[in-house]
């Protein structure tokens, strides 16, 4: 009896301490929030001690409406609010105008601030962590290379070759293929050729193997102990750096002995030309190889995801698919009758196809937001973002806002007919904006366009049931299996020919 009552007293004591602790914490929090609101810091909730609102944030990523976390807070506090996620107090903006100001004030007011696993893996030389003149120089070099006329003709042929090659293997696999895997094979091959001039073969396979291990660590717990994802990922990055570093060193030697200055052939040449005109010393090889490895990420992540989701949305929307097919068949017929090769412009001027790509990028939200840190106190539309705070500019919220898009959850490529081919605007930012606007924007559109053209004019397909998952990155849960049959059996085409 005595023992039991003693035990109860201990529990009552613990409960009292916890209750008093929580009361004091809540009091302090309320006082701090009042002070923050008086200063002009957006309203919001910092959630539980240490955890903040992280669990709710992550849980929303596992639902079919990942934007629900933002929507709930937007309805309580307005379009710009305060929260505490992933170990940081942050200000979230779901407002297109605020996002625009954040994107356009890169370097002097805002600098990128990414989760620890990403900064750890990318290292200090990453373009995502560069600022000021070095960033402008590297961004400019990559951007002009990707837009150069000489590259446009070559890359169009390279993408066509990869797409045709992989599509031709599809019927070998008992007519069932996983679109996500196939899209990764195509996009990685294209990008590695563009960046390192490495074509199909053993070297490419080894790079792909190491690269897959490396990207697994991009979003994971920041624990660097043997056996953890981050540790394995860092080891893969070391091996990749060795391989790519050797290619850079070989190229440097070849460049030194070359008499005439040639136009850059790949991204190695581009970054080795860093010092040209800028009167700066050549950056060390690990700077160059780190940036080259980083540039390969869209080959494994963003571009294949866009290709896969375009197939998913089209499979669910036969009317849009029929219009896409009609437009692409017309181009194919023209090319067959004139015996001309396809050009960059042929693919980029297919209006409905480009609208399908815009709508896919809007609805898929592959890069759902960018993270920035304020270098000084900044006031945007009356909201104070204090020095040192992070701001998350949510692209998903803007893309899924009824104020910006009618029936935002519908896949409707026709909505873009009113605005023309959308590149980027304050309410459409799949490729970011301002000084960090993605330099691979046009290349991505071209690649998706070539893939869709050859897919719809080569095969018809029936997609198996699958769903999109949004966390940690956008993916198809079962890699989007489809059952394909050759184009001749396509009833849509037969109708057209009759
Ligand atoms: C559908 C495909 C793609 C999407 C959705 C995408 C999206 C983005 C976004 C949102 C940013 C801005 C990040 C920020 O502001 O912090 C960005 C930056 C960047 N992207 Fe892409 N991207 C894609 C494809 C590509 C491709 C194919 C390449 C290159 C070969 C590429 C290279 C880059 C680079 C180098 C940056 C860094 C720019 C800088 O910080 O100055 N991206 N991308």
Automatic annotation (TrEMBL):
EC class of the enzyme, as a word: oxidoreductase
Cofactor list: heme
Gene3D superfamilies in UniProt: Cytochrome P450
Protein name as catalogued: 22alpha-hydroxysteroid 23-monooxygenase
Catalyzed reactions: 3-epi-6-deoxocathasterone + reduced [NADPH--hemoprotein reductase] + O2 = 6-deoxotyphasterol + oxidized [NADPH--hemoprotein reductase] + H2O + H(+); (22S,24R)-22-hydroxy-5alpha-ergostan-3-one + reduced [NADPH--hemoprotein reductase] + O2 = 3-dehydro-6-deoxoteasterone + oxidized [NADPH--hemoprotein reductase] + H2O + H(+)
Family of this protein: Belongs to the cytochrome P450 family.
MF terms in GO: 22alpha-hydroxysteroid 23-monooxygenase activity; heme binding; iron ion binding; oxidoreductase activity, acting on paired donors, with incorporation or reduction of molecular oxygen, NAD(P)H as one donor, and incorporation of one atom of oxygen
TM spans (from-to): 6-25
CDD domains according to UniProt: CYP90-like
Enzyme Commission designation: 1.14.14.147
Subcellular location: Membrane
Source taxon at top rank: Eukaryota
Membrane-topology annotation of the record: Single-pass membrane protein
Keywords: Brassinosteroid biosynthesis, Heme, Iron, Lipid biosynthesis, Lipid metabolism, Membrane, Metal-binding, Monooxygenase, Oxidoreductase, Steroid biosynthesis, Transmembrane, Transmembrane helix
Residues annotated as binding heme: 438
InterPro entries membership: Cyt_P450, Cyt_P450_CS, Cyt_P450_E_grp-IV, Cyt_P450_sf
GO biological process: brassinosteroid biosynthetic process; brassinosteroid homeostasis; leaf morphogenesis; monopolar cell growth; petal development; stamen development; sterol metabolic process
Pfam families assigned: p450
SUPFAM superfamilies, sorted: Cytochrome P450 (SSF48264)
Entry GO CC: membrane
Associated pathway: Steroid biosynthesis; Hormone biosynthesis; Plant hormone biosynthesis; brassinosteroid biosynthesis
